[in-house]
Amino acid sequence: xxxxxxxxxxxxxxxxxxxxxxxxxxxxxxxxxxxxxxxxxxxxxxxxxxxxxxxxxxxxxxxxxxxxxxxxxxxxxxxxxxxxxxxxxxxxxxxxxxxxxxxxxxxxxxxxxxxxxxxxxxxxxxxxxxxxxxxxxxxxxxxxxxxxxxxxxxxxxxxxxxxxxxxxxxxxxxxxxxxxxxxxxxxxxxxxxxxxxxxxxxxxxxxxxxxxxxxxxxxxxxxxxxxxxxxxxxxxxxxxxxxxxxxxxxxxxxxxxxxxxxxxxxxxxxxxxxxxxxxxxxxxxxxxxxxxxxxxxxxxxxxxxxxxxxxxxxxxxxxxxxxxxxxxxxxxxxxxxxxxxxxxxxxxxxxxxxxxxxxxxxxxxxxxxxxxxxxxxxxxxxxxxxxxxxxxxxxxxxxxxxxxxxxxxxxxxxxxxxxxxxxxxxxxxxxxxxxxxxxxxxxxxxxxxxxxxxxxxxxxxxxxxxxxxxxxxxxxxxxxxxxxxxxxxxxxxxxxxxxxxxxxxxxxxxxxxxxxxxxxxxxxxxxxxxxxxxxxxxxxxxxxxxxxxxxxxxxxxxxxxxxxxxxxxxxxxxxxxxxxxxxxxxxxxxxxxxxxxxxxxxxxxxxxxxxxxxxxxxxxxxxxxxxxxxxxxxxxxxxxxxxxxxxxxxxxxxxxxxxxxxxxxxxxxxxxxxxxxxxxxxxxxxxxxxxxxxxxxxxxxxxxxxxxxxxxxxxxxxxxxxxxxxxxxxxxxxxxxxxxxxxxxxxxxxxxxxxxxxxxxxxxxxxxxxxxxxxxxxxxxxxx
Length: 784
Hints:
Elements: H1 3-17, H2 34-63, H3 66-89, H4 96-109, H5 111-125, H6 161-190, H7 198-233, H8 245-263, H9 265-279, H10 282-285, E1 298-301, E2 304-305, H11 311-326, E3 331-338, E4 353-359, H12 371-381, E5 387-388, E6 391-392, H13 394-404, E7 410-416, H14 419-433, E8 439-444, E9 450-457, H15 459-464, H16 469-481, E10 483-490, E11 493-499, H17 509-513, E12 516-518, E13 524-526, E14 531-538, E15 543-545, E16 548-557, H18 562-576, E17 584-589, H19 590-620, H20 623-647, H21 653-686, H22 693-706, H23 708-727, H24 733-772, H25 777-783
Antiparallel strand pairs: 1-4, 1-6, 2-5, 3-4, 7-16, 7-17, 8-16, 9-14, 10-11, 12-13, 15-16
Helix pairs in contact: 2-3, 2-4, 2-23, 3-5, 3-7, 4-7, 4-23, 4-24, 5-6, 5-7, 5-23, 6-7, 6-19, 6-21, 8-22, 8-24, 9-24, 19-20, 19-21, 20-21, 20-24, 21-22, 21-24, 21-25, 22-24, 23-24
């Protein structure tokens, strides 16, 4: 069911009935989720547009040829639009997660087209004249800059049309299979996200569907449409890479670094290993939570009072709370309620308040005020004796309460054999944990502290007056509780007439004892003459979970590291709390979801690495090269950890989904690098001349440096596509930023690894194969 459609239908019906309402009566929405849905979708739509524009600019800058740049730019919207078709048939709506999947995939969608177009562009622009005496392999100087081609080149117009088509098709064939498999790695490595279960599965499946569809369609377009567009658009005057200022600058910067690293290979490997050792401990310093909090544009104030509060006092407190909240200039409207309707579906006791605070747009807030500061100000002004404050958000709270029963992100469930014992344990836990700095408020339910008025009829005394037990019970029901004695009919309307004592005659035990009861003789006697009326304590509410009596402890935190708090609190409870036999406690709320997701991710992440390794082996038919290309995933994780730490993001399901997406993208860059390294080596093997270790060294430099542009283009496209998400501050960005952060940080470190360590490993492997006499052109081509 589409919630937005339902909301719009309700609004439409309210407009229709507005004219039939009595004069002065108006229906006002206490809570409207339409703004949250619409604003979150607008945020992601704006991100998608900005990403498409930025990616297009990156392509144009690197190629310096507008018509060639049009090819990936054209395929981008086609892949995005095509992904909406299966979304429609699978009933995946446009929401934060589904559009977020497209936002994460934008940079990846053009990767294959970028590499294929750049390869065709290079083959045409650097095609030497037949009289050119200098082959490409001899252009590199010992320490000078890399020159990709002689300056004298034919334009594509001077090349025969048949020859031009052949060159472009051959260029597409050269990189096509590897690109298809690299995109397949991205798709398949992300499939384990579908293995997430329960709430996290429902949240991230739309993201996984859209990202998978988009990348899948882009793979098909790279093999079908892109070669056709290459033939159509790559023509005219084509600048060789040596005339591209961006390429000249990046190559001039990269070449001395690569030569230095290849010269000092052991030192390079040692430094990178030290970087891994230094960075990975950040895993243990970062906090954890189930999901980053989504700012909903509203807040939910849910204080809890002690049992026994009267409805009059509860209503007065509610009005005072509403007035206080409404005094804040950032508040649009306040809608509070206390107690519950006469329905078994709503088990809220009278001591539970529920106040929805709709906030104005952030551009109308006081300067420098954040949501956390606003909540802190509100909490300070709403300190009422006997009330324990809890702050959350409407959607988050409904999900937490529906799935766990706990209204706060972190809570506890105490189970045991008696309610008195549960209440005593809850009070001890409240006292122990209230001193922790992360705790804003804590409240243990008073499960056995309810107040009851007992009416015990004295059969003997009642019989002396000719009364039965039923007569006494009727007097209690009618005089104290009230009884419908008639019905007022006004046209088609019916109104019951209820009679009971005025409040002053039934507001304390002494007054209740003076309630009169009629005897058969006509006399009126106080009910205390035939019944005993008294107060007693008993269960305020009886909860039963897993066949055991249960009590809740609500913990409102001023920190987001739920996992760290639970670990600290558990250690404190083990030291200072002694559990009686038959009693247990467990952590609940969102932390319960986090535990479940963590156990699931322990199964999913190994599956991701195994799938990536298997696909790499299918591409290169080499266990060694597959292992080398697995390494970028570890270096990618170091960059993700660093940026995650700098931005202050805890580990969450959203962050881990970002890492899963990162692993596939990082491997793709490595695949492109290895393809070009093999191409350079194969040229030397094809010449038939005896190969030396220096030839392998120079082939690695040629394949890495001269083919730097497509690698930087793919990485830049991915990074540029995610930058708008990181700088975005609209509704919905709170969830997308933690997903994008690991990808951005990881792409930086994995790219450095691919540009430096992959050539180093390649040289080591091929020189070893040369010494063993196992390096042949057939083997190299099979590896391709």
